[in-house]
């Protein structure tokens, strides 16, 4: 334990390094996956082609990818950029399918009526389909976030500082506390990002919270009261209207 | 005025949804297209705002061929109400009503203010404005759908089985509300339903369709009931049976109206009050 107390600064620095390595790929993979997923969802022919090729991305082992990437992109072998690009590719691999499935899950009646009242296909995509796919996208993004944080530790092997450096260093020097600190900090970081995404989802998709509370909707508006997420905890007394 | 000229729609070479359909829908009247499923009634409705384009033939609105109009712009000028309200689940009631004005570039503040006024028009409390559609009852959602259809003050209102998914009591309420609204607003309404009672209640002009978009009969409810064109129409409107085949029975001086199954439908009265009511309806 004493190792942790005397190396708090180191753990904190590596946590920040880790954050800098994992947040851009999460955002980038989302931004790239939206148009790809939309394209996959739009045409029958593109769906198969896009989904199977991005699916293959995930099958590329990470270490060879780290060796090949600098050659392709022209970065130096130890640049953190390699790691960010690799993690983005893995994120895209997971996320494109989620976007395609999320868009496909939007109620056809709602799409039909949106077209009927005069949404152009562009505005319908941004104002109707994408927001309504939101809950599915969020679920996918949470998986991407946690997976990215965990994958980012691999950076240590190719000389990019991250929380993974605590494992490798701990192994080499036989400091068990350092290894454990690395593992725990990685898990905590993943949970923090996951929590941040859930919070963001609640802010951006307020309708998903309120629709679950239909039965217990009070006659007087109480907009700031958070509604419990699990329906089992809501009181079942019917409210007469 | 909306006019269909020899309109045919084939979805595939052997599936004909609508076959050589011609009809004039007079302005400021309610025209009801009624038929069972597969009769092409929804297809006909959707050809007016170009959600479906005909294979051949043309549709004109006030003499302008809709094929010459840009679909998105055309749709934004026509009210559209569908079954299950078709509201956007992620937008509050007030924003749902303001949807089309916002698409047309009306400033947000003005659009919201007008949306609130429309809630009054369709008989909804303004306290519902900030709720999401899923927090409303089916009948309330349908009223919001009507308010949204009216939001750009269109001349034409297309209604695709708008009251099909609500219970009979609420449906009757909504039907009366539509008749009240129509008296105030004077729209050209195209209403699609499979319910002949609804068609007779709402329609100034009723079009009875059979499978494949073939017209069985066009006329006012009175004309159709009095002179059904053929067996199909007679059986579709139920003129030969049940509660529409009525006869009089005299019981001790009182004239009772009885249906074909022997159910008492009511008493025959000949006072001035019912005469005035009948005239009121005819003058609508």
List keywords for this structure.
heterodimer, A: 241 residues, mainly alpha, MetI-like fold, 10 helices, elongated, disordered C terminus, B: 284 residues, alpha/beta, Rossmann fold, six-stranded mixed sheet, four-stranded antiparallel sheet, globular, ATP hydrolysis activity (chain B), nucleotide-binding (chain B), ATP-binding (chain B)
Summed up:
The complex is a heterodimer of chains A (241) and B (284). Chain A has one domain (2-204): MetI-like fold (Orthogonal Bundle), CATH 1.10.3720.
Description:
Chain A: Belongs to the binding-protein-dependent transport system permease family. Chain A: InterPro entries: ABC_transp_perm/SBD, MetI-like, MetI-like_sf. Chain A: Pfam families: BPD_transp_1. Chain A: This is ABC transporter permease. The complex is a heterodimer of chains A (241) and B (284). With 241 residues, chain A is an all-alpha fold. Chain A has a single domain, classed as MetI-like (MetI-like fold). The termini of chain A are far apart. The C terminus of chain A is likely disordered. Chain B is an alpha/beta fold. In chain B, strand 4 and strand 5 form a beta hairpin. Chain B is globular and about 70 Å long. Chain B starts with a strand and ends with a helix. The C terminus of chain B is likely disordered. Chains A and B meet through helix 6 and helix 7 of A and helix 2 and helix 4 of B.
Number of beta strands of chain B: 13
**SS-based class of chain A:** mainly alpha
Using a beta-carbon cutoff below 8 angstroms, give the protein chain pair with the largest interface and the number of residues from each chain.
A-B, 26 and 31 residues
The CATH C-level class name of the largest domain in chain B = Alpha Beta
Compressed to H and E, one letter per element, the order of chain B equals EEEHEEHEHHHHEHEHEEHHEEEH
Q: Number of domains in the coordinates of chain A? A: 1
CATH superfamily of chain A: MetI-like
Number of helical elements of chain B: 11
Q: Describe the sheet with the most strands of chain A.
A: none
As residue ranges, the low-confidence spans of chain A are: 212-241
Describe the global form of chain A: elongated
> Any idea of the CATH class of chain A?
Mainly Alpha
Pfam families (chain A): BPD_transp_1
GO cellular component, one term (chain A): plasma membrane
Organism (chain A): Cryobacterium frigoriphilum
Subcellular location (chain A): Cell membrane; Membrane
């Amino acid at each position: 334990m004493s190792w942790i107390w005397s190396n708090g600064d180191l753990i904190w620095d590596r946590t920040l390094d880790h954050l800098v390595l994992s947040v851009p790929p999460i955002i980038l993979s989302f931004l790239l996956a939206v148009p790809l997923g939309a394209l996959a969802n739009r045409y029958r022919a593109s769906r198969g082609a896009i989904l199977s090729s991005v699916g293959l991305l995930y099958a590329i082992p990470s270490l060879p990818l780290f060796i090949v990437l600098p050659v392709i992109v022209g970065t130096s072998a130890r640049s953190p950029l390699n790691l960010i690009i690799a993690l983005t590719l893995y994120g895209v691999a997971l996320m494109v399918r989620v976007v395609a499935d999320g868009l496909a899950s939007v109620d056809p009646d709602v799409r039909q009526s949106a077209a009927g009242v005069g949404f152009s296909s562009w505005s319908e995509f941004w104002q109707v389909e994408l927001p309504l796919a939101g809950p599915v996208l969020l679920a996918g993004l949470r998986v991407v976030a946690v997976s990215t944080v965990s994958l980012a530790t691999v950076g240590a092997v190719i000389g990019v500082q991250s929380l993974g450096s605590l494992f490798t260093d701990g192994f080499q020097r036989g400091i068990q506390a350092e290894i454990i600190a690395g593992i725990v900090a990685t898990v905590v970081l993943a949970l923090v990002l996951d929590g941040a995404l859930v919070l963001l989802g609640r802010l951006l998709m307020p309708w998903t919270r309120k629709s679950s509370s239909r039965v217990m909707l009070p006659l007087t508006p109480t907009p700031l009261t958070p509604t419990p997420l699990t329906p089992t905890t809501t009181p079942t007394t019917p409210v007469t209207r | 005025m909306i006019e269909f000229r020899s309109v045919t729609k084939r979805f595939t070479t052997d599936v004909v949804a609508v076959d050589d359909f011609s009809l004039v829908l007079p302005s400021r009247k309610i025209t009801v297209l009624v038929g069972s499923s597969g009769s092409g009634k929804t297809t006909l409705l959707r050809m007016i705002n170009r959600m479906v384009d005909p294979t051949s033939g043309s549709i004109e609105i006030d003499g302008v061929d809709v094929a010459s109009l840009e679909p998105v712009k055309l749709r934004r000028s026509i009210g559209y109400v569908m079954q299950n309200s078709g509201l956007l689940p992620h937008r509050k009631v007030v924003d749902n009503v303001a949807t089309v004005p916002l698409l047309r570039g009306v400033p947000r503040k003005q659009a919201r203010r007008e949306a609130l006024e429309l809630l009054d028009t369709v008989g909804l409390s303004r306290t519902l404005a900030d709720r999401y559609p899923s927090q409303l009852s089916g009948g309330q959602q349908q009223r919001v759908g009507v308010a949204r259809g009216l939001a750009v003050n269109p001349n034409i209102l297309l209604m695709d089985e708008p009251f099909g998914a609500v219970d009979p009591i609420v449906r009757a309420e909504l039907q009366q509300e539509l008749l009240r609204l129509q008296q105030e607003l004077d729209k050209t309404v195209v209403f699609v339903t499979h319910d002949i009672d609804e068609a007779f209640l709402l329609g100034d002009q009723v079009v009875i369709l059979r499978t494949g978009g073939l017209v069985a009969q066009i006329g006012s409810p009175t004309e159709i009931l009095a002179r059904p064109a053929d067996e199909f129409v007679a059986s579709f409107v139920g003129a030969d049976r049940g509660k529409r085949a009525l006869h009089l029975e005299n019981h001790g001086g009182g004239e009772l109206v009885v249906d074909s199954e022997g159910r008492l439908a009511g008493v025959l009265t000949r006072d001035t009050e019912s005469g005035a009511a009948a005239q009121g309806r005819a003058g609508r």
